Amino acid sequence: xxxxxCGAAGEVTGSCTLVETERTRVLIDCGxxxxxxxxxxxxxxxxxxxxxxxxxxxxxxxxxxxxxRVPRLxxxxxxxxxxxxxxxxxxxxxxxxxxxxxxxxxxxRYKRPPLYxxxxxxxxxxxxxxxxxxxxxxxxxxxxxxxxxxxxIFGSAFVEMQVGGIKTVFSGDLGNDYVPILKPTERMIDxxxxxMESTYGDRVHEDPKTRIEKLKTAVKETxxxxxxxxxxxxxxERTQEILYELNFLxxxxxxxxxxxxxxxxLAIKALQIYHQFPEYYDREAKxxxxxxxxxxxxxxLRVTKNPEESREILEVPPPKVIIAGSGMMHGGRIMHHxxxxxxxxxxxxxxxxxxxxxxLGRAIFEGAKKVHIDHQEILVRAQVExxxxxxxxxxxxxxxxxxxxxxxxxxxxxLNHGEPHAAEYLADAIRTHHDLDAVVPRxxxxxxxx
Length: 450
Ligand SMILES: [Zn+2]
Fold this sequence. Notes:
The chain has helices at about 40-45, 65, 70-75, 85-110, 120-125, 210-225, 240-250, 265-275, 285-290, 305-310, 335-340, 360-365, 395-405, 420-435; strands spanning about 1-5, 15-20, 25-30, 55-60, 80-85, 130, 135-140, 145-150, 155-165, 165-170, 195, 230, 260-265, 300-305, 320-325, 350, 370-375, 375-380, 385, 410-415, 440, 445-450. It is an alpha/beta fold. It folds into two domains: about 1-205 and about 390-450, Ribonuclease Z/Hydroxyacylglutathione hydrolase-like (Metallo-beta-lactamase, Chain A), CATH 3.60.15.10; about 210-390, 3-Layer(aba) Sandwich (Rossmann fold). It binds zinc ion.
């Protein structure tokens, strides 16, 4: 077996790992590079393999940094099967359509070619196959795989693979504990070679149970200041988790009822996919759904579907809450809200997700006093708060526990999907405490086993 790291090596985006035997070539994820000025160029660069020679792609989950280059792969000749869970399959189509749309605008604005266009999405979706968790799928005589629940976002999976007799596990992104709606991360059954993410390899999260209390405080304090609370959130999962908890807070009278805008077309479309797969809900969400409570609907919630409605939010007097993408504040409807509200100390930006290096979100999170949005200089006077416990990723303790949860100890662990400090810190920790052979691969690096 040969492993080639074609993305997310020493960074958190662009996930793409090539697994090959003498007869078969499979990609685990094929995501976009995000953040920083070079990501556009890197996404547009040639793949370090010939797309026509790839037999199959397995998508661990629908986040763009894991799926975003798949339509380009197809446009360049890939014609094999694309496997994922059923929700991931449907979410991916939404993400591809949304990205094609955004890239079309960017192409016009910056006079540069898009990575792919809308007409590439249909042929890509035709190659997708939904797979149930815990069902073995045979790709070829020498490669088969099983998906298990990663607890990261709805429908997320880690991949247990048999590659020419070598038990190989790809973690995809592993979830945090006690995430609303999601079932917990499953333990690994058995892996001799493990490729594991390391996003928070150097950190221990706040207790996830504090999350809802902190959300409550942020809502109440902003309301008391008669301000606007902006929650930049990923359209997939984070937005639905926030809605789930706001539903709880509003329906129990824990926060005053004010207008809450769900200003994310993608998140609105994604809600339908949640409704379609109640068997993926955890026990609490399932019980609510069975009792007829739609936890994505509550008094005060307003859904803004088109850009005109989004702009009209400005005319609604505060206090109010706006949930909008993108999660890292590098595009989407959150941008015009930041222009409108960042400059006033009554308002709050509540950071509820990972902010990748080079993004506007990272700059605001790290305390920038002024930022540039669409060539305008904006002073950051609003309160900036963060709830680390909302992370969708496992922390150092959970990653270490998961990688040792199999029946036997892995002989090799590759740590990808982490910035260098996080990945190296985790490598060091699991070498020291668990006696594991852990390495942090570099981009393009190739490793052979067996
Ligand atoms: Zn992810």
